[in-house]
Amino acid sequence: MLVTDYDGCGKCLVGVRRLSRTTDKTSSPEKQQDQVISAVEAVGGHIIAWADDWEVSGAMNPLDRPKLGPWLRGEMGPYDGIAGAAVDRIGRNQLDVLATGQMMKVSGRLLVTYGHDGRGTSATTLTSCGSRWSPWEHRWS
């Protein structure tokens, strides 16, 4: 996993991976890693750290997650945004994900997910659509 130092380029991103169960093959750590790297490369960024939350429910508020939370709360040092494999890897509670997206936007940070760059009004649309069905998935999984 290639990680580089924070250099102030404006695209120093924290890679975000999450699994509710480490045996879950559909969103394996390797698959998520490849997707995050692809998303970061697509916006011309680089990964400065990984926030890997294993055995953490998507229902947990991103701010409360053991690895991602400290970054979002400003406890880990400078960064320019986060990059996840999918919106539901950020969280499955629509309000929490929207609040996280808004927090990133207000602070001038990027929220990038695989297949989307997270800029402008599309970030709200992406977050809203991507997390809309996630609570149902959580309930049935």
Q: Could you please describe the fold and organization of this structure?
A:
Helix content is 38%, strand content 18%. The protein is of the alpha/beta class. Helix 4 runs antiparallel to helix 5. The longest helix is centred in the N-terminal third of the chain and has 14 residues, at 29-42.
Short description:
By secondary structure, the protein is an alpha/beta fold. It has helices at residues 29-42, 68-72, 87-90, 94-106, 122-132, 134-140; strands spanning 12-19, 46-54, 81-84, 110-113.
| Helix content estimate | 25-40%
Outline: globular
Question: How would you state the average pLDDT, rounded?
Answer: 84
- Per DSSP E runs of 2 or more residues, the count of β-strands stands at 4
Roughly how many Å apart are the termini?
29 Å
What is the percentage of strand-forming residues? Answer: 15-25%
Which strand order spans the largest sheet, edge to edge or round the barrel?
A: 2-1-3-4
Radius of gyration: 14 Å
